[in-house]
Structure formats: C-alpha cells, structure tokens
C-alpha cells in the first residue's frame, strides 16, 4: 500500500537545478531516509513535499489526494506532521503546555488559547508525553530540559496532529550518540505502531543504516541510488561519490563493529 507518492519533482533556482525528476514512494509504517552530500537537493526535495517550496514540475500525492504546492498549514491539516533540525518549542511554557498547544490547534480551538488553555487536552498531552518517555517532566519548563529531551517533546508535539506522514529534518542533529539511537528507535517503534510513514533527512550514517527501511541517495539534485540499507551500502556509485569519504567510511566501520 502506498501512503505517499512523489512523481518527477523538479526545482530550479535561477540557473541552478536543485532537484531534477525526483520520484519515490513511501508506505505506512515505513522509514525512508534521504541522504547525500551538501547541496545534493535533500532540503529542496523535503520542502517540496512539506509545502515550504512549490515545485516547478512534478506531483506529491498523499493517500490519493494531490497536495502539490499546497501551503504548509494545508498540508498539515491533511495529515502531515513535521519536526525540525533545530527543535521548535515554546521555551517559556511547560512540557505539557507545548503539547496542549498543538492539540488545541489541531482541534481548531485557537480562540481558547489564552482563556483556558491550561485545562484543555491535558490528558491527551500526558498520554503523548508518556509515549515518548517524558510524562514525568510534564510540568517542568521546557527551557530546563536537556536538548535530547526537548527533541522527544517535539516528537510528541508532531504526533498531536495525528499525522499519517511524518517529515523529520535531521532529527538527531545536536544530540549525543546514545540520545540519537534512542530517538530513532522510539520513532521507528511509533511509526510501526501507528502506521505512520516517516520521511527523514539525516547526516548521521549510523542512524540512517540502523533505522531506515529504505534509503534514497541524492547527488546534484538527482537520485543516484535507492533501496534497502544493504543495497545502498553495496552500490559502487554511492561509495564513490558519497560513502567513500573518510567520515562516512568511519561511520560504516563503527556500525559494522556494533551490529556485526
């Protein structure tokens, strides 16, 4: 079953082709990673799917409904959640209040934000925080949390929209290695449990090869390889133009040493 279908997305900025004929699909509960060197077109592709950029050509179809070029708010209402490279939270609010704000917005009750926001959807917020392992911190100001915990709260905020598709822009950026593994394991578990398709970009190859079901490799705006982690790791072109760099070879050696 196909949840998301992307067909022939292309985007040009002046004389620079940022994405050319990018096509892929994503199923419910599947983790799909987009990787590639800097300037490969990962962010451009990601933002065309999420509505931040309008493609010059191509289509984005979510469960049979075309969402190409729709603004981010409209895309969100259709069942697309998102987390960001730098966590987007209200630092002056408590952990629970951050999730409550998302639930209030999802219900279209923004007029109640200031009148009775503290009381609205608290049980729902606590349930989501429990799922991401943060219920015990519900009443702490989010500004007091370690960054890895903030990223878990951001995941709960994204889940408040009941997404069918979750877009994660470098979800482990700024996190310690153990925190990275924990967040990606949690995300994969929730994706399977709730049949949420997850599309993510990531520079940490350990996170990608350990948790992605499939991987797309972009170089200069074009897909040069697509497949399972094992297929991508064995691809000679990928090794030559991307994974062959010193840093990525070290990451792959570390993963092989850990997982055999």
From TrEMBL:
GO cellular component: plasma membrane
Gene Ontology process terms (BP): D-alanine transmembrane transport; L-alanine transport; L-isoleucine import across plasma membrane; L-valine import across plasma membrane
InterPro entries assigned: AAA+_ATPase (IPR003593), ABC_AA/LPS_Transport (IPR051120), ABC_transporter-like_ATP-bd (IPR003439), BCA_ABC_TP_C (IPR032823), P-loop_NTPase (IPR027417)
Gene3D superfamilies in the cross-refs: P-loop containing nucleotide triphosphate hydrolases (3.40.50.300)
GO MF assignments: ATP binding; ATP hydrolysis activity; L-isoleucine transmembrane transporter activity; L-phenylalanine transmembrane transporter activity; L-valine transmembrane transporter activity
Domain ABC transporter, first and last residues per copy: 4-245
Family matches, as PROSITE patterns: ABC_TRANSPORTER_2
UniProt keyword Cell division present: no
One Pfam family in the UniProt entry: ABC_tran
Keywords noted in UniProt: ATP-binding, Nucleotide-binding, Transport
Top-level division of the source organism's lineage: Bacteria
PANTHER family: AMINO ACID ABC TRANSPORTER ATP-BINDING PROTEIN, CONSERVED COMPONENT OF ABC TRANSPORTER FOR NATURAL AMINO ACIDS-RELATED
Official protein name in the record: ABC transporter ATP-binding protein
Taxonomic source organism: Falsiroseomonas bella
Lineage, opening ranks: Bacteria, Pseudomonadati, Pseudomonadota, Alphaproteobacteria, Acetobacterales
């Amino acid at each position: 079953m196909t949840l998301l279908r992307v067909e022939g997305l292309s985007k040009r900025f002046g004389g620079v082709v940022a994405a050319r004929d990018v096509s892929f699909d994503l199923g419910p509960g599947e983790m799909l990673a987009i990787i590639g060197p800097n300037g490969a077109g990962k962010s451009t592709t990601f933002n065309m799917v999420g509505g931040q950029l309008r493609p010059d050509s191509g289509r984005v179809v979510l469960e049979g409904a075309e969402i190409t070029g729709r603004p981010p708010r409209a895309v969100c209402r259709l069942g697309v959640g998102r987390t960001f490279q730098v966590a987007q939270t209200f630092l002056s609010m408590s952990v629970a209040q951050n999730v409550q704000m998302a639930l209030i917005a999802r219900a279209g009750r923004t007029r109640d934000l200031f009148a009775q926001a503290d009381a609205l959807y608290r049980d729902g917020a606590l349930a989501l925080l429990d799922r991401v392992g943060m219920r015990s911190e519900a009443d702490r100001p989010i500004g007091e949390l370690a960054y890895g915990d903030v990223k878990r709260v951001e995941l709960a905020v994204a889940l408040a929209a009941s997404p069918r598709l979750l877009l994660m822009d470098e979800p482990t950026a700024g996190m310690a290695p153990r925190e990275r593994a924990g967040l990606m394991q949690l995300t994969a578990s929730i994706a399977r449990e709730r049949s949420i398709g997850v599309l993510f970009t990531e520079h940490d190859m350990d996170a990608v090869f350990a948790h992605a079901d499939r991987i797309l490799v972009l170089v200069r705006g074009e897909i040069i390889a697509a497949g399972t982690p094992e297929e991508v790791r064995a691809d000679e072109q990928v090794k030559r133009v991307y994974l062959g760099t010193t840093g990525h070879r070290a990451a792959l050696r570390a993963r092989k040493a850990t997982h055999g």
